[in-house]
Structure formats: C-alpha cells, structure tokens
C-alpha cells in the first residue's frame, strides 16, 4: 500500500507561500503522493493552485486532488487547468472528482447547487473532449497542447451514481475521511460496480486519514472548523478519527491495508511542516 501526505491548503488562514517548500519536504521524506482537499467558501488555498505549486516544487511525487469540487467550475476552464497542472508535473496528476454539497461553495454565476448529478455527467464528457484536443468556444482551436493526455480521474461519493461514474469514467475510488471500520462496504461496492461494468482489473482504492503529532487539540479544532457545516455526527466521526501520534498512524496503516486499500493519504490537521518527517518516520 502506498502512503501519501496531504498539503495544508485546506487549513484556515494557511500561509500560501509555505506550500511549495512543504511539497518539496514531503517528496524528500519519501511519500508517494501529495493530496489536496478543496473548498471555495473557506479561507485556504485553491486546490488547483496548491497542486500547481507542488508540481513546480517537486519532480517525482504523485499529485492528487482529494477531492476537487468539480461542479463549482465551468467545465472547459477546469479541464484546461487540470491538463495544465498535469503537463507541468510531467504527467503526475490524478484528478479526484466530487460534486460538492455545501451551497456556499457554488459562487460562479449560473452554476448553483442544483442538478449536480446531471451537471457532472455532462461535464465529464466535456473534460474528455478538451483533453482530446477538440475545439472549444465555437472556433477551430483546442484548449490544450497536443502533448496533453486524458488525466486519470478518481471518484468520491457514496451514492450509486457516484460508483457508476467511477466505473464508466474513472480509474478508482476515494473514500470519505472516516475510520476504516466504516468503509468496508464502500470499497466492496467500488470493486463490485467496477466488475459489473466489465472493467478489467480492479479500481484504484484510496483512503484519507487526518493526522496530528504535536498539538492534537489544535488539530481537532482545525478539522472540526473545516467540517463545521457538516452534520454534527459526521463531523465528530472525522475529528475522532485523527491519527494522534506515531502509534495511531501505524495502526491506521494496518487497518486500511487490511481492507485492501491501494493508497492511504494522511491529511494534515494543521499547517506545521514538522509533521512531515515525524509521519514519515512512523509509517514509511
């Protein structure tokens, strides 16, 4: 099982200038992937910007939006931005796709929080056409260079439609940031839907687990703040699942490995970069 680490772009009032150095330290520490979590109506750094910064500051580590709220974007613009990040990174990006649910994240005119299933189904067609170099905007020009590829997509969500989109369009499934005891059914459903769709092999299965080493109270408060608009029961489950220290981080690795997960991304609960090496020493 691969072990990744998240960038702190989601931490309230994070100093954006620290993200490139954080990414470089994570690569040097030996993590397999850098992940982002993204919202619009929250004082952090846009996940696409964080991934672009990470792409420029690293050379080998994988990049993953974990997950990006795709429906808040005009689809051609997002497809071009994603292809651009992937190109800058040398083909290291996987696009984690979610449809969102918090109404305040939908700030673009004409892209409100309604009809999200229909919207993402249409948007996925557009992403593919943009990445294939088809013309955009009614003219003759495509939006991406000829070297662009179809960026791998990993789907989040728990509805039947989310699993169906994964099997049709995706390369894998990202589970919500809850303890492994809650997730066996999610991963089993992903595998079953993949097989039922006639896909070869197995989907790439990714899990998320928050972590904290030096200031657990601060980490808990930060995660609770980020999930402040979520139902209280779900928020408490996420906060309660934070891996506090080396022993808890190692236990999370074992628990997710037992579920057959391909990759576990430890998401920071604070922006303290010293957690990078401490987590690496515990789990790599």
TrEMBL record:
Source domain of life: Bacteria
MF annotations from Gene Ontology: alkanesulfonate monooxygenase activity
Entry's Gene Ontology BP terms: alkanesulfonate catabolic process
Keyword Magnesium in annotation: no
Pfam families, per the entry: Bac_luciferase (PF00296)
Start and end residues of each Luciferase-like domain: 1-246
InterPro entries recorded: Luciferase-like_dom, Luciferase-like_sf, SsuD_RutA_monooxygenase
Alphabetical UniProt keywords: Flavoprotein, FMN, Monooxygenase, Oxidoreductase
Record's protein name: Luciferase-like monooxygenase
């Amino acid at each position: 099982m691969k072990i990744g680490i998240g960038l702190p772009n989601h931490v309230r009032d994070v100093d954006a200038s620290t993200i490139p150095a954080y990414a470089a330290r994570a690569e040097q520490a030996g993590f397999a992937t850098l992940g982002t979590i993204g919202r619009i109506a929250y004082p952090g750094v846009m996940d696409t910007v964080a991934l672009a910064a990470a792409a420029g500051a690293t050379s080998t580590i994988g990049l993953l939006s974990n997950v990006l709220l795709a429906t808040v974007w005009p689809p051609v613009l997002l497809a071009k931005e994603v292809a651009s990040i992937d190109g800058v990174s040398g083909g290291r990006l996987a696009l984690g796709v979610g449809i969102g649910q918090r109404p305040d994240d939908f700030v673009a005119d004409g892209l409100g929080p309604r009809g999200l299933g229909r919207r993402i189904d249409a948007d996925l067609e557009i992403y593919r056409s943009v990445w294939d170099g088809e013309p955009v905007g009614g003219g003759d020009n495509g939006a991406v260079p000829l070297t662009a590829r179809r960026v791998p997509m990993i789907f989040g969500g728990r509805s039947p439609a989310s699993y169906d989109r994964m099997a049709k369009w995706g390369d894998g499934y990202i589970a919500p940031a809850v303890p492994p005891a809650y997730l066996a059914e999610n991963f089993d459903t992903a595998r079953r839907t993949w097989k039922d769709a006639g896909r070869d092999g197995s989907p790439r299965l990714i899990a998320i687990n928050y972590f904290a080493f030096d200031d657990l109270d601060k980490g808990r408060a930060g995660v609770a703040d980020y999930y402040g608009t979520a139902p209280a029961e779900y928020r408490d489950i996420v906060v309660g699942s934070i891996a506090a220290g080396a022993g808890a981080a190692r236990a999370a690795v074992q628990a997710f490995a037992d579920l057959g997960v391909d990759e576990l991304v430890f998401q920071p609960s604070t922006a303290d970069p010293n957690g990078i090496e401490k987590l690496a020493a515990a789990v790599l």
